Amino acid sequence: MSVLKHGSVGTDLSQAEWEAGAGATGRHILSAGNPGDLLQYDGVNIVGATLATVKTTVALTAVDINPLSTQGVILVDATGGNRTMTLPAVAGLSGRMYTIKKIDNSNNEVIVDGNGAETIDGDVTAVLTIPFSSVTVVADETGSGSDWRII
Which residue, of 14, 28, 119, 134, has the fewest CB within 10 Å? Predict the structure, then answer.
């Protein structure tokens, strides 16, 4: 069984996210063939759609890093001391998301730092102090400046 996450019967969409049923993994994107084309739902099938699976790359680190554009989830072991994840510059990355998770139960911090003067929801850093906590940030170029937003 597939579940349409955005849209509903009788709704035209250019792209829809869906999850497959038992045994399926990852997110799947249904997309119309060309920009501006619409997906049509005829009550049984979504017509004219192509399917792509979106996977997130997971990285494990116990040292300070600058996340790569290919990484989506960074698992950070701060057992050996405070760790800093310096995000890339927002310019040209609008919509890019990173999830950073502290995967230990130490009292050490995982510090998520914006690039240069860029902020994270107006703060210079986001700090994970609670064991096994996480933060997801998205690059935002829509406002008066380029910053990271916590979602």
Answer: 14
- Within 10 angstroms of residue 136's Cβ, the number of other Cβ atoms is 14
pLDDT digits (tens, 9 = 90+) for 28-68: 444 555 555 555 666 666 565 555 555 677 888 888 888 87
Distances, alpha carbon 93 to alpha carbons 50, 87, 88, 97, 147, in Å = 25, 11, 9, 9, 10
Q: Quick one: tokens of 79?
A: 């057992």
Total-model pTM = 0.64
Q: Which domain, by its residues, includes 111?
A: 58-150
Number of domains within the chain:
2
Task: Kindly state whether residues 142 and 79 are assigned to the same domain.
Answer: yes
Q: Are residues 70 and 7 in the same domain?
A: no
- Here the CATH number for the domain that contains residue 141 is 2.60.120
CB 138 within 8 Å of CB 97: yes
